[in-house]
Amino acid sequence: MRVIYDSTLFLQDNVGGVARYFVELANRIAEASIDRRDTVSVFAGFNSSRLTAADFTRGLHSGVRMPVFRGSWRIYKALNDLGVQGLLCSRPTEPTVLHETYYGTPRLWNARVKRVITVHDMIWEEEAFAGKESWVARAKRISATRADGILFNSESTRRAFHRHYPQRCSEAVTHLGSELRTTRPRRPVTFPWPYILYVGRRPFYKNWAKLVEAIGLMKLWKTHGLINVGGPLRPADLAVLTSAGIPTERVITLQCDDDALADIYSSADCFVFPSKVEGFGIPLLEAARCNCPLACSDIPVFREILPEGPWFFDPMSAEAIGDAVANCLAKGRSDPRVASARKTAETFSWQRTADQTVAFYRSLL
Prior knowledge:
About 40% of the residues lie in helices and about 15% in strands. It is an alpha/beta fold. The chain folds into 2 domains: about 1-175 and about 350-365, 3-Layer(aba) Sandwich (Rossmann fold), CATH 3.40.50.2000; about 195-345, Glycogen Phosphorylase B (Rossmann fold, 3-Layer(aba) Sandwich). Helix 6 (about 210-215) runs parallel beside helix 7 (about 235-245). The longest helix is centred in the first third of the chain and has 18 residues, at about 70-90.
């Protein structure tokens, strides 16, 4: 069997959960392959991604990082589509799976190839455009129509998908892993104050502004700072902090590798995940594995992956968020919920994800 991952993901500067998923998947499938006739290739092509050959097992990744300019995406996409078609046609009789790393790979010249997509979330259909189809939703719909198999990262995502699209091909749910790639023992971190932790970007559906409102409403900033692991604060973010009455000196935003992130999880008084919608929720499990007390939105996918452990709250209510975070801070790490969450989180492994994915590939072939 030959498995090829295409270049779509590499045409964007993606370092979030989708990127982690494909890096772990390709590496672990390649490393676990016993049959030398099984091969894995990551065709990055002409790309603008921060993902490089160094992120993959040696020899998996092929591609060239190129400059970004007006119209570059369309040019690189067209060239990469030709490149992957040529790769697929180079060994026409070999059983082959093409796994799209995002949505939008064109029709295939080699009809023997089985095409797989992973649906990571349904944010754009359920939250973003209120009935108006976005380019992401349109590309997803086209890819789903052409796919021979669809993987979902949660049962919640699968159910949401079928609220919008009919079932028409093979499907499977493969939960994601939660291990951080650490290389050393954890170290204590020092900030000027004990802290509440938020991890991730801050688009509207992540609900960061409502979390800030809750911290301001409950005056939690007087005893705890807020650590944001993600991109730098924008002027709009600073305006949210000002509106909530939170001094900017009580907020730190940083980016870090997995070793530092594990340290930060392990020293936080509370990790908060306030999203209105998610496809999975890797940071929730990462925090749980680090014995961090949890407060998160009461949404189906979080109930699916961690039914016991977090303090759940209504993500639309600043009062509910504030109460849950305050209770989480009061109970601390001695709360039995913390141990329960860690026990459950440790059952989510990237190796299990890879094994289930390989079994799905083989079922299509």
